[in-house]
Amino acid sequence: VPKQSRNSTRHSGVFFVELDSGDQTFFIRYKKDRKLIEERAGRKSQGWTAAKANRLRTERLAGKSESNVEKRAREKVRKESVENRWTFQKIFDEYLASRPDLKGRANDVRRFKRYLGKIFAHKTPEEVTHFDINKLKQGLHKKKLKPATIRHALEILNRTANFAAKRGLCAGISFVVEMPKVNNIKTEDLTPEELSRLIKVLDEEQDIQASNMLRMALYTGMRRGELFSLKWSDVNFRRKTITIRDPKGGLDVTIPLNKMAEKVLKEHPDTASEFVFPGEGGQLRKKTPRSLNRIKLKAQLPEDFRMLHGLRHVYASTLASSGKVDLYTLQKLLTHKSPLMTQRYAHLRNEALMDASNVISEIIKPET
């Protein structure tokens, strides 16, 4: 403040400056730690008086309040501290940036925002308590979400914290997060009537890409991602095989190209893309065709039936219940890495064998 514009008051260390508007701004001066400090108190129009400014000066001298300079310095430290804190939101963003091709990325982002953000976005992993986890679980239970959905949310939380710990960004969660038990063995099937309706709808469907994708799921049991990434170069019509490429760089698997699947592919429209079922611009498909839901409704299939994944189960169930395919062969056709995954169809195989065994009772009838 220019010295010539200062106006002294009856209080030592308190002065004011006349403004062009007629208002007055009060200032205080004092020494602290041998350093002369001068700061603005406030304007007369804001209720400031020389006496009020003097009380502020007394507080500053007594160390009862911080100077404006000290407040700014503390706020700067606080902001830097916040910026340097590895919160779940910050870690999750870093995690996504490091995994641009993450499978299920859109679902993870949606679940983080919908289920985790409110409680955990601004917390660091080491700040998480049992209370936080229980609060999350109770909140999701109140929304009547399935155990599998709650588990997915907690898995994202764990995955994010583990990513930070492995990268050395910060410490992880200090305790083991207990996961809800989930029975995820859901073997979907269709009745003969439902399957017949579906085939009829597929025959009438205008979206050939969608209808043929569903046929391939039904005729080969291929997974959604395998159908999306299937290239024409993976189809060998001469040897009658389909090569399923491992997206994780593991061993590729070859399955038979049966007659029905061969017919579908030979009659499939040419899109000038390397992919059999391409996405936008002929590139790798990222999303399921919208028409699948329309087909499902038109065929009057169960509401919870998952079209592509469900038809994979129909394929497996049909083979198992035929009694002509053993579980080892079924495992190879489904490209299950473990026989345990194929065991869900064992009861169908056993029922088929029992039916075959009971034929004897129809041939040899006990005398009455």
Average residue pLDDT: 86
Q: Sheet bearing the most strands, described?
A: 4 strands, antiparallel
Helix content: 40-55%
Number of domains: 3
How much β-strand is present in the residues? Answer: 5-15%
CATH architecture of the largest domain: Orthogonal Bundle
CATH class of the largest domain: Mainly Alpha
Q: What is the terminal-to-terminal distance?
A: 122 Å
Figure out the total of helices.
16
Strand/helix succession: EEEEHHHHHHHHHEEEHHHHHHH
From the 3D structure, determine the CATH topology of the largest domain.
Answer: hpI Integrase, Chain A
Q: Unreliable runs, pLDDT <50, ≥5 residues?
A: none
Task: Write out the strand line-up for the largest beta sheet, numbering strands in chain order.
Answer: 1-2-3-4
The coarse overall form would be elongated
Computed Rg? 35 Å
Structural class: alpha+beta
The oligomeric state of the chains shown is single chain
**Number of DSSP E strands:** 7
Quick one: CATH superfamily of the largest domain?
Intergrase catalytic core
Description:
By secondary structure, the chain is of the alpha+beta class. The protein has three domains: 3-68, Double Stranded RNA Binding Domain (2-Layer Sandwich), CATH 3.30.160; 88-167; 192-357, hpI Integrase, Chain A (Orthogonal Bundle). It has 16 helices and seven strands. The strands form two sheets. Strands 1-2-3-4 form a four-stranded antiparallel beta sheet, covered by helices on one side. A three-stranded antiparallel beta sheet has the order 5-6-7, with no helix packed on it. Strand 5 (235-236) and strand 6 (241-244) form a beta hairpin. The mean pLDDT is 86. Residues 86-165 form the Core-binding (CB) domain. Pfam families: Phage_integrase. InterPro entries: CB, DNA_brk_join_enz, Integrase-like_cat_sf, Integrase_catalytic, Integrase_recombinase_N, Phage_Integrase.
